[in-house]
Give the backbone structure.
Amino acid sequence: MQTFFTPAQRADPALAESEAILRRCVHCGFCTATCPTYVTLGNELDSPRGRIYLIKDMLENDRPATAEVVTHLDRCLSCLACTTTCPSGVDYMHLIDHARMHVEKTYARPLPDRAIRALLARILPYPARFRLALSLARIGRPLAPLFERIAPLRPLAAMLRLAPKGRPAAAPSDVSAKPLASSAAGSKRAIPYGNSTPASLSAAGAEAAPPARRVAILRGCAQRVLDPGIDAAARRLLSRLGIALVDVPGEGCCGALVHHMGREEEALGFARRNVDLWTARIAAGGLDAILVTTSGCGTTLKDYGHMLKRDPAYAEKAARVSALARDITEYLAECDLPALPARGLTVAYHAACSLQHWQKVTLAPKRLLAAAGFSVREPAEGHLCCGSAGTYNILQPEISAALQARKVSNIEATRADLVCAGNIGCLTQIGAATSLPVVHTVELLDWAYGGPVPARLAASARFAAAE
Amino acid sequence: MSNATSHAAEGPGCAPIAFLPPRPDVLARRDEIMAALTELVSAGGVVRAPLALKPFETDAFVAYRQPPLAVVLPQTTAEVSAVLAYCHSARVPVVARGAGTSLSGGAIPQADAVVLGLSRMNRILEIDLENRTARVEAGVTNLSISEKVAAQGFFYAPDPSSQLACTIGGNIAMNSGGAHCLKYGVTTNNLLGVTLVLIDGTVVTLGGKHLDAGGYDLLGLVCGAEGQLGVVTEAVVRLIARPEGARPVLFGFDSSEEAGACVADIIAAGIIPVAIEFMDRPAIAICEAFAKAGYPLDVAALLIVEVEGAEAEMAAMLAEIVTIARRHGVRTVRESQSATEAALIWKGRKSAFGATGRIADYICMDGTVPLSQLPYVLKRTGEICAGFGLEVANVFHAGDGNMHPLILFNANDPAEAAKAEAAGNEILKLCVEAGGCLTGEHGVGLEKRDLMRFQYSEAELAQQMAVRAAFDPLWLLNPSKVFPLEGRPA
Amino acid sequence: MTLPSMSSPSMISPAMILHAPRSEAEVVEIVRGALAGATPLALQGGGTRAGFGHAVAAEAGLSTSALSGILRYTPGEMVMTALAGTPLEEVEAALAGQGQRLAFEPADHRPAMGTQGVPTIGGVFAANVSGPRRIAGGAARDSLLGIRFVNGRGEALSAGGRVMKNVTGLDLVKLMAGSYGTLGLMTEVTFRVLPQPERVETLVFSGLEDQAAAELMAAAMALPADVSGAAHLPESVRGRFLAGALPEGAATLLRLEGHAASVAIRAETLTRALGARAPLQRLGPEQSESLWRAVRDIHPYAEDGTQRPLWRVSVAPMAGPGLVAALRMEAGVDAFYDWQGGLVWLRMEAEPEAALLRGLIAKAGGGHATLLRANPAARAAIPAFEPQPAPLAALAARVKASLDPHGLFNPGRMG
Ligand SMILES: Cc1cc2nc3c(=O)[nH]c(=O)nc-3n(C[C@H](O)[C@H](O)[C@H](O)COP(=O)(O)OP(=O)(O)OC[C@H]3O[C@@H](n4cnc5c(N)ncnc54)[C@H](O)[C@@H]3O)c2cc1C
Ligand SMILES: Cc1cc2nc3c(=O)[nH]c(=O)nc-3n(C[C@H](O)[C@H](O)[C@H](O)COP(=O)(O)OP(=O)(O)OC[C@H]3O[C@@H](n4cnc5c(N)ncnc54)[C@H](O)[C@@H]3O)c2cc1C
Ligand code: SF4
Ligand code: SF4
């Protein structure tokens, strides 16, 4: 599209970048069709094309954000379904990032909104605080209906409802790394390796020491608190594959949560801190990959290079870190895991937006699951977000609930035995609305390749029996 | 805000297309009109803030823009009727809007108009497989109908490349076509009935699940009328059983003319594949970059020919087509080997216009010519664009002669934009002279309005306008479109 | 549209002046003359359906009989342009010569309607008449690409063109098709044609009740078999086809056309899916040809020596059998079905029972009934075309006025 920026505006690199993004958009409208908020609300203003237009107008005129514009930008889930759809390659993510910063700078949010955002930004990225908050939330849950009735407090109600009912499952104590081959042989499901035993697995068996691969797993923040079992599963599986796990003490929240609220400086703070830690680790002895089991965080990690590219002190380091970031399934897909016989379980695979639309990791999880003997079903409207989207389910509870219901009904229509996904946000959001067990992809893979039955499945008599 | 924006025409080119001057009395009553509309539709159904109106100022014919007076988003036929009745009594122009994917500016508002958006009316109301019909609200997207019945082995045949996004209401208004219309016909051939709200709020039903409704074929008249006769709120469309198999095949040629001649010969041989799509070298490169469909990059022109039916049937038809293609010196023939590959081939083709945005801005022409004229018109199109110093990419529905030259330009360069428009006009004139028409499926809209006299005499235009006036005597429905502004009835 | 009753059964009485212009210019002159003298005109092609519908209160006739001849036929583009008065037979012969044909299979209704004359291509489009292939190949209006016509102001105009796809301006072509000469006289028509198939075959399922037959036809249309004709002939009419050679019991027909190998495959598909439902027989090209011609031309009720009322009813395909069953409870009726059950040819034993029939159609989900044949008294009393709801009738009247403001053409025919 035609744009209207002045030469002075173009001199600002951030604006110049946004202009280049805008210039690519041909206003064809394809993206509207796959946008969860447009599909739900039916208003151009709640569509990617509408938002692009609002942003364009705001940036071109260097206009402070207005309440109306903020409303529609806030409703964006950052799911990036629009980006997958866009034939023209419009980089919506970096445009909306820019817009959110502009909003943060130029718009005074009403007090309750500001308070809730500040609260979230102060709690979620910090595991200790988050753990405490969850305990309080369990106590506070009866207040939810009350908050529900007071519009500005609705996000609080949503928060309370989201807190898991039970205590988060503690990480199984057995984190020890049994070599995969022996553990598999000992289990009831013998794995037919035949002659095609992959090098990585036989090596893990003992004798020949493999060229050690060293990976770190992002420990992150919220997931650690909500479900430590996921990382534990990933660690077990990797260890069994003979991959060395490297600890990076001090590493913390990736910054995504605040980044998507437009709190740029805070986000960059998290990013710089992590970049420093990993860079040190790389210098200290090499790192093949930084694995992420929460795809929402993985996306941010992969974007550090972009986020810090205008910081001369960090640009290069950040790019290196981003280049190492991999989703756990992306990495496992290259590990030659052996094919296992069918196990008579159907899994509805929910593609997290951060995986399918941001990182474009679409086939790896499904292939891994299929190879591990699960029969994979893909729910209809797989491109639509479940409504979790970071803090979205707290800040936009109505739209989030509509998407959650739509997602769950599509999932349940597959008549699968269980649901799996690669992102903690989705697991929580979907789990809250279905009676089907909801687990992380890596938990299923760990189970299939000799690990314990995932906690959420173990709770169900049916799967316990299957084990 | 009431000043229509468009690229200024300086240097070689043509004058920008004018909007009807807004009626000052309507502009003056803006607040009153807003208040009235708010009463007529359910919550959240009126967009009023000036900044929020901007995103409605254009459609996919993005060179022209004009924010409306207001936008209303009704949810039922009754709400549409109430809005129209009000606008009629208050003498406020109305522009219906589906998904805003029109390439001719059909959904571009005018300063004194209320945009009536159908996007909140997006329910599929009834699927009746025994009678092979679907009843849907006007805001339902084209593709979602096919998706809804795919598991049962059916589909809705007209498949505009924009089918992911465009609405059935927009399709009816534009009588949209698509790649597979060569065999299955365009919208009008697959439409059985509509619920139409007239400008005074009267609701009429045309057709239904039965064929060929009695009386005048008003259904046929409304289809393709570009929202000039009324607002469609519901439609009954025909569903078709999905063929046993379908296979797109790529044929690469050394020249556009050879490919064009091959198309004419395939049809002349009495072979009607489901689709024959054409792409020239620039278009191939653009689509391949997006879809990675495996289009050959070393040919000057590519035909995507799709055959369908049982295996033996496809093989037999393909053999005949290959023989003809050989006569035209075909260079590469590649059959898709899997459903995934076939899907990619179509994804590339259907994303062609959008993907063009990666390299340049474009305007898309839509003239149709008799098949025998294809090679000539292709050649002349290239010459015309070269004459203006512009690049052109051709990607179109060749089987029915419906050309889509994409004229590439830089929208931030007003002089070049004006040249692109001028080149487009030349090409459309060429299509008419070659025995064809200005538009095969995208509609006249704003874009080709002032070219209507190339194709029609004064009396013919007057007759069409008289028919239009039988539906909307006050000219309140989308009045800036289709008919040249001068020479309209007082 | 108001539908005033007719006063005389024939369209053009012998006493009338009958203009037969030889050129469009002459048509214009005649129409302008009529305009000046305020003398309405009865338009006619071959006059083969002259006995139908409402009498035209006109003092002069305007015939296309001298506007005859094929102007342009480009088989390679599958398009023909002909003067409106060109006999249908001539058009079909020219097409056959190139291995092509009309997609919509127009009928010859002379036997059923008891009329004479030579059907013209213009008349066929003016009545939008389509045969059994309607369900696969579209109606006449779907084949019509462009026209030249003279409106009620005496202006010669063109609409549409000769290309397959054209959305430039309002689609007056569709409007003129099926308007029975009430909006203007078409002088020239341009239409799309299709290649003739290599092979035609018919699957005949025997002994099915109407409802079961409708279900079978629906099931067939849901298969990837490209059925190009689906008709059901109840036992009462079965004997009137193929000189009684169809097997015992009602016959349900599915027609397949196309490439020989493809027809064989599709016949197999249908047999596999539906063969268990009823005894099945396959007919080759010759028998198919004559069988479908008879379905097309309403053969059972043609030359049946009666003036018994004949209705053409269009409803949703699955609604046909229910409608006939409901009608049978109250009146003597014989019927057979085309268009997968959606086109019902009804012959009433005594009175036309218009009100009853139309009431039942409305109950069955909508559709329309056209009275094709009846004795003069009945025809005088009954609107031949389905009456329309008031808002729609008013709209149609305004449309008519926009083309023929002085009510010059076929006054009274459609209203
Ligand atoms: C990338 C791209 C590819 C395309 N490919 C094709 C193609 O292959 N074939 C093709 O035919 N077109 C194509 N188009 C054009 C466009 O998609 C069609 O014209 C489509 O039918 C428009 O539908 P819409 O819902 O977007 O309507 P809009 O653009 O919103 O409106 C189009 C017109 O319809 C009117 N209208 C909309 N809804 C109603 C209603 N309910 N009642 C009355 N009037 C209404 C509007 O007033 C306007 O005049 C393409 C467009 C794009 C951007
Ligand atoms: C109610 C009805 C239903 C029919 N249904 C079918 C059917 O389903 N299938 C089928 O195959 N046949 C059908 N027919 C038969 C069909 O009408 C004739 O086959 C066809 O009209 C023959 O043309 P003609 O030249 O004899 O026309 P005519 O009998 O002379 O005229 C037919 C009508 O068209 C008008 N007309 C004729 N020529 C022109 C022209 N050039 N311009 C404008 N108007 C003109 C006349 O005024 C008249 O109203 C039906 C007929 C009727 C009355
Ligand atoms: S799909 Fe891409 S080019 Fe099209 S409107 Fe959306 S962002 Fe713009
Ligand atoms: S990121 Fe998701 S919610 Fe936001 S505009 Fe794109 S598709 Fe819509």
Remarks:
- Chain C touches chain B through 88 residues (CB under 8 Å).
- The pocket of flavin-adenine dinucleotide (ligand 1) is lined by residues A 28; B 59-60, 95-103, 106-107, 118, 138, 160-162, 166-167, 169-171, 173-174, 176-178, 226-227, 231-232, 353-354, 441-442, 478 (CB under 6 Å).
